[in-house]
Amino acid sequence: MRHAPVALRCALAVVLAGAAVGAGASPALAAGDPLALTNGFYVDPNTSAATWVASHRADGRAASIKTSIADRPMARWFGNWSGDIGQAVGAFVGAADQADRLPVLVAYNLPGRDACGGHSAGGAGSPAAYYTWISAFADAIKDRPAIVIVEPDALGDFACMDAAAISTRNDLLRFASTQFRDRSPNTWAYLDAGNAGWVAANVMAGRLHAAGLANVRGFSVNVSNYYTTGQSATYGSSVNAALSRHGYQRSYVIDTSRNGNGSNGQWCNPAGRRIGTPPQKGGGAELLLWIKAPGESDGACGTAPGSPAGSFDPQLAYNLIYGY
């Protein structure tokens, strides 16, 4: 049930956020608090895990996957597979708004996405196409509450890119940051900052700043990876310490979807990992979120050599529940 019409709740949240500006918050962040505007995180009934459970109820793994994964709130990823992005985002955010719950979305469509890793290659066909796509994404949210993770891996994936490609990527991310700032006033957007074992914190701080971090709520850590919440919080705090050189700091969120057993140094469907703390406010960061959907493959590698990136593998999901 709604506690108040969205417009009224938005107005109240803006008043409260305005008071926070005087306490040192950036004016760019003086918008509605999506947590205050909703009643908990949205559980998407159409995740790959939920879809698999619905069609495999007789499978001995189904009950565990339903309880431990499918019934948990997690992010919906949007990319070039999503069709009309305005319709896709609008429908998802609208369903969450009707339920008075907070949706988590991932924008994942940069041209040359996963340029160095290759398992999730793709993205918009050109910078111009991306400008159109990300504008429509932000515009479809409108003033409804949402959390958006912006382009996982984009600022860690520089090793094989030349200076011109990096400059173009920064231009695209800065543009994306302005779209969420200007078009989605009750959205908290977070630029992705990789993970604790990838890019040094001081280097990542510089990359975030160049990519428009000052325009959005903060940054995300550990997306689709396995570092513990403690390790990720230490990394996030170190990034913030380095950001101080640019005159500001930002909140950060941690992906805890698969970090229950920590990292063994491998990233692509490694054995022995486990689901982590369910989504919540606080817990070592501003938010702990399930950004990577447990059971969805990292690529045709590791313990799931026959599962392409993004496909649901019930055995991967089952292994994550029990730490196999």
TrEMBL record:
Keywords: Carbohydrate metabolism, Cellulose degradation, Disulfide bond, Glycosidase, Hydrolase, Polysaccharide degradation, Signal
Binding site for substrate: W77, W198, N225, W267, K292, E296
Cleaved signal peptide residues: 1-30
Keyword rRNA-binding: no
Residues at the active site: D153, D298
Family per similarity comment: Belongs to the glycosyl hydrolase family 6.
Pfam families on file: Glyco_hydro_6
Domain of life: Bacteria
UniProt key word Cytoplasm: no
Gene Ontology BP annotations: cellulose catabolic process
EC number per UniProt: 3.2.1.-
Biological source species: Spirilliplanes yamanashiensis
Broadest EC class assigned to this enzyme: hydrolase
Protein name: Glucanase
GO MF, one example: hydrolase activity, hydrolyzing O-glycosyl compounds
Source lineage: Bacteria, Bacillati, Actinomycetota, Actinomycetes, Micromonosporales
